[in-house]
From TrEMBL:
Keywords: Cytoplasm, Metal-binding, Methyltransferase, Nucleus, S-adenosyl-L-methionine, Transferase, Zinc, Zinc-finger. The gene is SMYD4. Protein-lysine N-methyltransferase. Monomethylates PRMT5, modulating its transcriptional activity. May also act as a histone methyltransferase. Plays a critical role in cardiac development. Acts as a key epigenetic regulator of gene expression during cardiac development via its dual activities as a methyltransferase and negative regulator of HDAC1. The keyword Nuclease does not apply. It catalyses: L-lysyl-[protein] + S-adenosyl-L-methionine = N(6)-methyl-L-lysyl-[protein] + S-adenosyl-L-homocysteine + H(+). It comes from Felis catus (Cat). Its main location: cytoplasm. The keyword DNA damage does not apply. Residues 295-334 form the MYND-type domain. CDD domains: SET_SMYD4. It is found in: Cytoplasm; Nucleus. This is Protein-lysine N-methyltransferase SMYD4. Residues 233-563 form the SET domain.
């Protein structure tokens, strides 16, 4: 979803292949982004726009007046099945398609409040009850909902409000008796029960998870960093001709120390699986996606989403978030939902970045863009002079005018401060020359189509006035958007969250790290890559935190992993990925060390000798590493055995999913005996089998055996991923659950 949909990519690549050779050469050899953008935009024809528009119509992002009834009925089915989570999401979908102050939206809010009540989300339930009333919930249905409100207030310990609600309910019924005798009897019974509870219930204290989350959110950086405000005083910004900009430790840093805390300049929620309507069996999609569970602005998890009044796609955790998003960018994006889903997340972030820049002083950046466009036909030396002039202008005046001005660090302000703002974003490298001509053309044509749509809608207002003779306002910002799309190839940061898997009946749940959104973090983009980094990155909503994962000595560089980690893939695979996405060959310590240990390979992939248990070494033919043993075997034979074993483990997992733990245990114990004859004790599959056995014994309630197997799994995970890894955290969390239950 980062790049445009496959249909548009294929269309553009075919268009590129049919262009005259001279036109291809002109775009391929263009010296600046403005040249690439302006040449490509001239090639965008009405039929291209029509094709893209037809693709965009495949996404249901407008409000459909027939959808609320469908989603409400589907939600009712889930509710009757006691699937309250599923019902909540479906009612939310109905709300997002409803217009304000209609019966549809009031009924969906009321039904969602009932589902939230059963989920124990009493605060959210109360908000939905208020929303249902605000949108005109039918008076004849009010008693049941008011009873639910009183129940929530009692449960939350808000006794005075609960008593008032009960009193209002009694007065309302006395004035307008609308219930049957049987209904009245049920109401009276519930009211009496609630009165007794209201007298007994004490105010509830804040739950530990909520308090813990608040504590984590309130953790601040230690010491003020005047150069990089989003970083701690323990780090400093440096620049180097080969490594570019980077951060180093200004003192010895201990593991766990917070080094960077940065809010995303902009972020865009990943839509998840949102196939076009033509790929769905029904007109309305009932599947749960990220967009149904997370706020589209702050990325907070929420069950009670607040919809945009203009479209059915954007949803928020609160009215405040909805209004902030509208003021910053959604007033422009609202009518473009289908197009932005078609063009992909990178185009969406590029647009949003320029929209947010409207609220900053981006005048110098604009002058630089305008200078490029105004001088696009000048020779290269003149262009170089222009860039130097603008760069000096950004750098400010020297205190000692007789001295030569040192070039400022790109992205810094007049005072040398590097902040998380549009100036820093603008100076992230797009690596234009490293992208293929076809890719540059795809990005330029996509941005051109987006600009045409913005121009037709008349909804785009620039950050500041564009000087005369610089081209249209949208040309200037089109070049900026193209730059951002290309920047994101190397500078996009995946915003992740931890999702728990497994049914609610399970005593022990698994957790995994999943991609929630993509954002731009100018300070984190300063960190260079290592396949074995000395930091770890985590997220709370849109805020990224970088912590030391090991001791870092004074003067050492602060390093971050761009994805290819030594614990997850071999050096050759890592190098290929880094070359294709980031355009460099990695020479970190992990890559250098792996060259010397290539004979055996990683310990989590190693085979062992069936005779003496030593590690096997070699390429096609493996030889025992022990000098006193002459055992040898072909790699293909061992790989075939490994594949057979993986199939057996897969069958055991299927038994586990089908609630047959005894059969799974029997099969897994047999797999373990087989593995001992040819797999290293630290092989990843050995650890996975221990983890599976832990789950099986936990399902039987044998907590001691479960914990024993999980601790063995932990040993393998630590060997592969390290003691500070998120994978280790997942396993420790499961072990904590086992100890709690046992």
């Amino acid at each position: 979803m980062d790049l445009p949909v496959d249909e548009w990519k294929s269309y553009v690549f075919q268009k590129w292949s049919l262009l005259p050779k001279s036109t291809q050469v002109t775009i391929s050899t263009a010296e600046t982004l403005s040249d690439i953008f302006l040449h490509s935009s001239l090639l965008l024809q009405p039929e291209d726009e029509m094709f893209l528009q037809n693709l965009s119509r495949g996404y249901l992002v407008e409000k459909d007046p027939n959808a609320p009834l469908f989603y409400r009925e589907e939600g009712n089915k889930k509710f009757q099945q006691k699937d309250y989570m599923g019902a909540t999401v479906l009612y939310s979908k109905g709300i997002s398609h409803s217009r304000p102050h209609t019966a549809d939206i009031s009924l969906c809010y009321a039904n969602r409040s009932a589902a939230l009540f059963h989920l124990g989300q009493h605060e959210m339930c109360l908000k939905d009850i208020m929303s249902a009333q605000m949108h005109g919930y039918p008076e004849r249905l009010q008693p049941k909902m008011m009873l639910r409100k009183a129940e929530c207030l009692v449960t939350l310990g808000r006794r005075q409000e609960a008593s008032q609600t009960i009193s209002d309910l009694e007065s309302s019924f006395a004035a307008k008796p609308t219930l049957t005798a049987a209904q009245f009897q049920i109401l009276q019974t519930n009211l009496c029960r609630l009165k007794m509870k209201a007298q007994e219930k004490e105010s509830l204290t804040e739950t530990f998870p909520a308090a813990l989350t608040k504590a984590l959110e309130d953790m601040d950086l230690k010491g003020e960093n005047g150069q990089v405000p989003s970083a701690s005083s323990s780090v400093s910004l440096r620049t180097d001709p080969l490594r570019g900009r980077y951060l180093v430790a200004t003192k010895d840093i201990l593991p766990g120390e917070l080094l960077v805390k940065e809010d995303a300049f902009v972020s865009v929620l990943h839509p998840g699986e949102m196939p076009p309507l033509c790929h769905l069996e029904s007109k309305w999609d009932t599947r749960v996606t990220n967009g149904d569970l997370y706020c589209h602005r702050c990325l907070d998890h929420t069950l009670a989403t607040v919809p945009c009044d203009g479209c059915s796609y954007a949803k928020y955790c609160s009215h405040d978030c909805m209004q902030q998003a509208w003021d910053l960018y959604h007033s422009v994006e609202c009518s473009l939902g289908g197009l932005l889903l078609t063009l992909g997340v990178f185009c969406h972030i590029a647009l949003r970045s320029t929209l947010v820049a409207r609220f900053e002083d981006a005048s110098k950046v604009i002058r630089k863009l305008c200078g490029e466009i105004r001088n696009r036909d000048t020779c290269s030396p003149e262009r170089e002079t222009l860039v130097q002039t603008l760069t000096c202008d950004l750098g400010g005046e020297s205190e000692n005018k007789g001295k030569m001005l040192e070039p400022p660090v790109p992205g810094c302000d007049l005072n040398g401060k590097y902040e998380s703002n549009y100036n820093a974003v603008f100076h992230l490298l797009p690596h234009t020359g490293n992208h293929s001509p076809e890719h540059r053309f795809l990005c330029a044509l996509s941005v051109s189509a987006l600009c045409r749509r913005l121009e037709a809608a008349g909804c785009y207002k620039p950050a500041a006035a564009v000087p005369p003779g610089s081209g249209s306002e949208l040309d200037v910002w089109g070049v900026a958007m193209l730059k951002h799309v290309l920047q994101l190839h190397c500078n996009a940061q995946a915003i992740t969250t931890i999702q728990h898997t497994g049914s609610k009946e399970n005593s022990v749940t698994n957790s995994r790290q999943v991609r929630l959104a993509t954002g731009i973090f100018p300070v984190i983009s300063l960190l260079n890559h290592s396949c074995s980094p000395n930091t770890s990155v985590s997220f709370i909503s849109t805020v990224a935190t970088v912590r030391a994962s090991q001791q870092i000595g004074k003067g050492q560089e602060i390093l971050h992993c761009y994805g290819p980690h030594q614990s997850r893939m071999r050096a050759a695979e890592r190098q290929q990925k880094l070359r294709s996405q980031y355009f460099f060959d990695c020479s970190c310590a992990a890559c250098q060390n792996e060259k010397h240990s290539a004979a055996t390979g990683p310990r989590w992939e190693a085979f062992c000798c069936r005779s003496c248990g030593a590690l096997m070494q070699g390429d096609d033919v493996l030889i025992c590493g022990s000098t006193s043993c002459t055992e040898s075997v072909s790699r293909d034979h061992l790989i075939s055995r490994l594949q057979d074993l993986q199939q057996q483990v897969g069958m055991a997992r299927k038994l586990l999913r089908n609630d047959k733990p005894e059969g799974a245990i029997q099969l897994l114990l047999g797999c373990q005996r087989d593995a001992q004859s040819f797999l290293s004790g630290e092989h990843s599959l050995v650890g996975e089998m221990e983890d599976d056995l832990a789950q099986a014994y936990a399902a039987l309630g044998d907590w001691q055996k479960s914990a024993t197997h999980l601790q063995k799994s932990l040993q393998v995970v630590e060997v592969r991923h390290g003691p500070s890894s998120v994978e280790m955290g997942h396993e420790l969390f499961k072990l904590a659950q086992l100890f709690f239950n046992g």
